[in-house]
TrEMBL record, chain A:
<dbReference type="GO" id="GO:0005758">
    <property type="term" value="C:mitochondrial intermembrane space"/>
</dbReference>
<feature type="region of interest" description="Disordered">
    <location>
        <begin position="184"/>
        <end position="212"/>
    </location>
</feature>
<dbReference type="InterPro" id="IPR037365">
    <property type="entry name" value="Slowmo/Ups"/>
</dbReference>
<dbReference type="Pfam" id="PF04707">
    <property type="entry name" value="PRELI"/>
</dbReference>
<protein>
    <submittedName>
        <fullName>PRELI domain-containing protein 1, mitochondrial-like isoform X1</fullName>
    </submittedName>
</protein>
<feature type="domain" description="PRELI/MSF1">
    <location>
        <begin position="2"/>
        <end position="174"/>
    </location>
</feature>
<dbReference type="InterPro" id="IPR006797">
    <property type="entry name" value="PRELI/MSF1_dom"/>
</dbReference>
From TrEMBL, chain B:
<dbReference type="GO" id="GO:0045332">
    <property type="term" value="P:phospholipid translocation"/>
</dbReference>
<dbReference type="InterPro" id="IPR007918">
    <property type="entry name" value="MDM35_apoptosis"/>
</dbReference>
<dbReference type="GO" id="GO:0005758">
    <property type="term" value="C:mitochondrial intermembrane space"/>
</dbReference>
<protein>
    <submittedName>
        <fullName>TP53-regulated inhibitor of apoptosis 1</fullName>
    </submittedName>
</protein>
<keyword id="KW-1015">Disulfide bond</keyword>
<comment type="similarity">
    <text>Belongs to the TRIAP1/MDM35 family.</text>
</comment>
<dbReference type="GO" id="GO:1990050">
    <property type="term" value="F:phosphatidic acid transfer activity"/>
</dbReference>
<dbReference type="GO" id="GO:0005829">
    <property type="term" value="C:cytosol"/>
</dbReference>
<dbReference type="Pfam" id="PF05254">
    <property type="entry name" value="UPF0203"/>
</dbReference>
Amino acid sequence: MVKYFCNNTDIRSAWDHVVSAFWQRYPNPFSTHVLTEDVVYREVTVDHRLLTRRLLKKTNRLPRWAERFFPAGMSRSVYIVEDSIVDPVNRSLTTYTWNLNHTTLMSVEERCIFQDSVEQPATTQLKREAWISSGVYGFSRPIQEFGLARFKSNQVKSMKGLEYALSNLQGMCTSAAEMEEKCKEKKRGKQNRRGAPAAAQGHGEGCVREGQRGSQEPGFSCYCAQEAPAVRLTGPHVKYCTGDINSTQ
Amino acid sequence: MNSVGEACTDLKREYDQCFNRWFAEKFLKGDRSGDPCTETFQKYQRCVQRAIKEKEIPIDGVEFMGPNKDKP
């Protein structure tokens, strides 16, 4: 018996940025459970696709009731393989991830497909599927349920981690309050020095605040956009704070 | 980010930097002019493959995208 999970998410960044960020998402504040990351195979095919295998070592946090299924000597960490194919011509990234060990206890396989959004410009659509199964006699159902719950929670962290990597790449900052403060400071600084209000900078440089996005907890992301086209802004929530901002965080 | 082989982390970082630049500036733009990272990659691989053997990580012989074969 296998539990199947599927969902679609929109990532508000262009596909090229998402794919670049994909390689740079560790470490991030949400990935403390990822202990090591290695590329163990890589090849560019004759049709210009990039094949990669990454090996990850992660902690294996279990609820107490599940720990009894762990023999004392058994390793606590999980080895995970992530195989991926980047097709820059068709603009798709497909990844397949599964655990190498502890498979009797639980096997989690995940497939992700990142492609340009059909409906929205500068947006990437992610289709994520998972197959979760357990071979523990008599306990497979609660273990699978736990596995699915943990998968969903990890999925949220995974998206946050990817967004963190994206914002690093694009020189964005992710704390609205911080940015507001920086913007105000810069404005004050300019006013004090020159005795005149800060003039608006040219296109692209500025600090914008955007409304909540995605299905994660509501919040604001504040962008220092060096190249505005990389970020899509929503109308009513956009607020410009002008002045030159140091866009690296 | 650390490598699974403690001694390999520096080699990994050097390779990652080379790769990330090549990936964004050449590969994604369709430039097929060859990979400047081959040497750093090989140094890094020698180290990490040794660590994998030492730690007996069961990754050898695992088929690329293996389990995906049975999925629709």
